[in-house]
Design brief:
Radius of gyration: 17 Å
Order of helices and strands: EHEHHHEHEHEEHEH
Number of strands: 7
Number of helices: 8
Oligomer: single chain
Shape: globular
Strand content: 5-15%
Strand order of the largest sheet: 2-3-1-4-7
Helix content: 40-55%
Bound molecules: adenosine monophosphate
């Protein structure tokens, strides 16, 4: 399988697709959003600096993000990885290329998960997560609701909402994404590395298409 670099707007399902691939294809998951949330959770100085920026839906600076991802990529020893949430700017895409070349990592595919804005907003507003195991639920979709309201089916913890999962922050995140995505797509298209998968609520089809793109043949 190839390493996967996901480019996607908020709520396109990068996390859900990644979870499936980790369980079934033993990928290492590198999610920049999770890395940043872990810093906030830990109460580090860096976490305090970024929490307001993240809550509004704005981007953390390229320099910080590039250095964060570099540290994680260096730690991987030949394990296949999913990069979820990076690159989000053309600058990050170019730096990522340099990092992968210098690490000798060549077997990569960039998968662009596309989703209608309306569906993405509905997903964001209904999304709740388990703080313990990370499982994601959605109260607006019957098959994604927890069995008991607000309680994780697996570990029985109380479910929480991300502070940036509100309409105001979503608008900023979606617009920021739209402003940057064209140049990133053009960049990877020129390198013949880009695949596109249209996302809807048919998760089986989405997974099948992602797996097809990630297979080596
Ligand atoms: P995500 O979990 O991928 O939706 O990311 C949540 C938030 O983390 C984003 O809205 C940004 O504020 C920040 N973030 C995550 N990845 C990046 C990145 N590559 N560049 C800048 N900011 C990022």
């Amino acid at each position: 399988m190839k390493n996967i670099i996901f480019i996607a707007p908020p709520a396109a399902g990068k996390g859900t697709v990644s979870d499936y691939l980790i369980k079934n294809y033993h990928y290492k998951h590198l999610s920049t959003g999770d890395m940043l949330r872990a810093e906030i959770e830990a109460g580090s100085e860096f976490g305090k600096e970024i929490s307001n920026i993240m809550a509004t839906g704005s981007l953390i600076s390229d320099d910080i993000m590039i250095s964060l991802v570099k540290q994680q990529l260096i730690k991987l020893s030949n394990q296949n990885f999913i990069l979820d949430g990076f690159p989000r700017t053309l600058e990050q895409a170019k730096s990522l290329d340099e990092m992968l070349i210098s690490l000798g990592v060549t077997n990569n595919v960039v998968i662009f998960l596309d989703i209608d804005k309306e569906l993405a907003l509905k997903r964001i507003l209904g999304r709740v997560n388990c703080p313990k195991c990370g499982r994601s639920y959605n109260v607006y979709f019957e098959d994604m609701k927890p069995e008991n309201e607000n309680i994780c089916d697996d570990c029985k913890s109380e479910l929480i909402k991300r502070t940036d999962d509100n309409e105001e922050s979503f608008e900023v995140r979606f617009d920021t994404y739209m402003n940057n995505v064209k140049s990133i797509k053009d960049y990877y298209n020129e390198k013949h590395m880009l695949s596109e998968v249209m996302v809807d609520n048919n998760l089986t089809r989405v997974l099948d298409e992602v797996i097809k793109e990630a297979k080596n043949d």
